[in-house]
Amino acid sequence: MTDRYAVFGHPIAHSKSPQIHAAFARQTGEDVVYEARLAPLDGFAEGVAQFIATGGRGANVTVPFKEEAFKLANRLSSRAQRAGAVNTLSFDTDGIVGDNTDGAGLVADLTRNLNRSPAGKRILLLGAGGAARGVIEPLLDQQPAALVIANRTVSRAEELAGLFGHGITACSFDAADTPFDIVINATAASLAGELPPLSSRIFTNNTLAYDMMYGRDTPFLDFSRMHGAATSDGLGMLVEQAAEAFFVWRGVRPDTAPVIAALRLDRERLAATPSRGPRT
Ligand code: NDP
Predict the structure, then answer these.
(1) Considering the domain 103-233 in this protein, what is its CATH number?
(2) Is the CB of 188 under 6 A from ligand 1?
(3) What is the pTM (predicted TM-score) of this model?
(4) Which of 19, 62, 127, 229 could form a disulfide with 224 if both were Cys (CB 3.0 to 4.6 A apart)?
(5) pLDDT recorded at residue 159
(6) Which of 21, 135, 152 to mutate to test the pocket of ligand 1 (most atoms within 8 A of CB)?
(7) Does ligand 1 lie within 6 Å of residue 192's CB atom?
(8) Are 137 and 161 in contact, with CB atoms under 8 Å apart?
(9) Atom 17, ligand 1: residue with shortest CA distance
(10) What is the pLDDT, as a whole number, of residue 275?
């Protein structure tokens, strides 16, 4: 029988996860279907319960339900525990298991797709929200030379640094003004088309500037490029975190490269399509 999976979010229509998981299923021959489910803002737990009752085997969770999913799970992986958020749920006879594959997705994208292993590197992480928290431990596991967290509200960066202990420092955007090998934008500024107030001194010609947001160019990527950095959006992270979730559910690791390439091609085609005028 075909196994059912879904992604829960609000909004959810924009989600590329159904397309990504359909590609993984075709590639691996796994008998699964994967759909996008819009949960009401006050109806996430009910939505998940209903999905389980109708045979759902697992689910991904996106904005704004990752913290709620953390609370909903009966058991948590250690990486979900440290992240304080869950993006992958598995349903079995003992209940709901929560995991977090975002950090593994980022590290896989940096290491395999972009050839920028964090090992021994100076890393600047911008932001102290859910996305930042989820990637700290997987980044530290790679043993960077330094990990600095800069945030608009400095106390939130300090709190995170305190939570993870050794090897991390926290500061304001202004105070980050020395060169870094990798600068990761995990703020929500790009969503609003804004640029955090960054010093150009954080970039050199060897810096990789990585924006977790995907789908369009951002002021952060423009600014980084202008100051000599190589750049990447977060599309690779999206596909890699999905592959890690697929592995958690099915025990099979899909090949991510053709899926990333197909999504990039879609994006280019869309950008090249002349926009239509208003419908009459
Ligand atoms: P949160 O809302 O939890 O965190 C928001 C963070 O952004 C806070 O640190 C906040 O600072 C900061 N911030 C918000 N607006 C601004 C601004 N205008 N200037 C500077 N800082 C700002 O969001 P998430 O952590 O969940 O998500 C962050 C980003 O990561 C989003 O773009 C999301 O799409 C992306 N993401 C991508 C994934 C992928 O697979 N590619 C996976 C997960 C997330 P303060 O504390 O001062 O409020």
Answers:
(1) 3.40.50.720
(2) yes
(3) 0.95
(4) 229
(5) 95
(6) 152
(7) yes
(8) no
(9) 189
(10) 58
